[in-house]
Amino acid sequence: MLKAYKYRLFPTQEQSDLLAKHFGHCRFIYNHFLGKSITEFKENNRPWNRFEYQSEIPKMKKTNQPWLKEVNSLSLQASLKNLDTSFKNFFNQKLKAKFPSFKSRRSKQSFSVPQNVRIEKGKLIIPKFLEGIRICFHRRTSGKIRSATLSRTADGIHYVSILCETEIQALPKTGKTVGIDLGLTTLATLSDGLTFENHRTINEFEKKLAQAQRHLSRKTKGSNRREKQRLKVARLYHKVSNIRNDYTHKMTSYLVENYDVICLEDLNTQGMLRNHKLAKHISNVAWGRIKEQLKYKSDWYGKTTILVGRYFASSKLDYECGHKNEISLSDRKFTCQSCGRMIDRDLNAAKNIHREGLKLYSTGTVENKRGAIVSHSL
After folding, report:
1. Which of 53, 169, 158, 166 minimizes the C-alpha distance to 111?
2. Cβ count within 10 A of residue 127
3. Are residues 113 and 13 in the same domain?
4. pLDDT tens readout for residues 139-182
């Protein structure tokens, strides 16, 4: 099984400059061949062929772009492989991926090192960095190192994600199952009554972000002061992201450790984001990230995650009598129009999701690659 370990890097100034060259050269290869493939398809109807373009890289080093020799050649090839994957995803109708877009120098930067990666004496050793880059080695890797991906955030912090082939021990079975209703007022309500609070992380930094962005808008474009202020804004967003990731990882780890079968709703997050009144709050709670973490952690530790279809009326059905009621978003209490039972809206939905998920689990409706049973519609 493949597992990635992420660490922070502390490169010297010389190493930072060489890393910047790797980011820039790999981005150049990606954008160059993306633009070339678009042009050749329009003019000559020539389809995308990764290996034909890959054979052109050595020729470019000898003629017009000799500066490409400054970086690891395998990283340049990996950049072209990433572009090839983007094209395959676009042509795969099931994935509904967008057409590959050009990479910007102002967004997050990254490049891959497909081989010759090792860690020695607290340093990351990769081609072109023989002295090694100092690494914050807060936990040990397990298994054989397959590859590494180095990245730089918008505020200039460097990270490395090391992919290892390892064996992960399954967690002991607890015999418990649970249904989860994800929401905005409460981030997650479990069918057994436990709740996870929505910390609304972005709200804590709203005033600081607004002030920092106002100062940024007043700075002259291209000036040093504007670049310094841009880094301040980026650091604030990075801090918000770290707080959110820390909370979702702790929550999903708790769920996987304490429950064998986890049922949750397959929410249409992209559709909900079209509601401009709720888009900011939905983005802040990161429902998609929670779902993704539960799926791969269940796969690692021998547990099961079930996605109940998004059209299942979990909020409208009475868990006890099964009567379907009309309920608005403002109603926080569920009152059944048939039997008169009153219950918390989210708890009732979680119980419905739990029961429907176990029904799908017992019938084995759809099985995905990770082994988790998934139902996208009923």
Report:
1. 158
2. 14
3. yes
4. 988 899 999 999 999 989 999 999 999 998 999 999 999 999 99
Hey, CA dihedral for 52, 55, 61, 62, is it positive or negative?
Answer: negative
Same domain, yes or no, for 214 and 87? no
Among 181, 260, 299, 318, the active-site one is 181
Indicate the length of the chain as a whole number: 378
One-letter amino acid for residue 66 of the chain: P
The structure tokens listed for 308 are 């109940």
Residue 373 counted as domain residue: no
Report whether pLDDT(131) > 60: yes
Question: What mean pLDDT, rounded, does the chain reach?
Answer: 90
Domain that holds residue 234: 177-363
- Is there a catalytic annotation at residue 346? yes
> What is the per-residue pLDDT across 96-120, written as a single tens digit (0 to 9) for each?
899 999 999 888 899 999 999 999 9
Q: Measuring CA to CA, which residue among 301, 198, 185 is closest to residue 254?
A: 301
What is the bridge-based pairing of β-strands 304-308 and 261-265? parallel
Decide: pTM greater than 0.70.
Answer: yes
Q: Up-side HSE of residue 26: CA atoms within 13 Å toward CB?
A: 28
Return d(Cα 116, Cα 127) in angstroms, integer.
7
369: confidence class by pLDDT, cuts 50, 70, 90: very low
Q: In the chain, pLDDT over 70 holds for what percent of residues?
A: 96
> Is 246 labeled as catalytic in the residue annotation?
no
Tens digits of residue pLDDT in 178-219: 999 999 889 999 999 999 999 888 888 999 999 999 999 999
In a domain, 139, yes or no: yes
Task: Give, in order, the Cα–Cα distances in Å from 60 to each of 47, 210, 237.
Answer: 21, 46, 38
Catalytic residue among 84, 260, 299, 346: 346
CB atoms within 10 A of CB 368: 12
Domain count, the chain: 2
Going by C-alpha positions, the residue among 175, 182, 176, 173 that lies closest to residue 308 is 182
Query: Which of these is catalytic: 260, 265, 299, 356?
Result: 265
The CATH number covering residue 297 comes to 3.30.420
In a domain, 374, yes or no: no
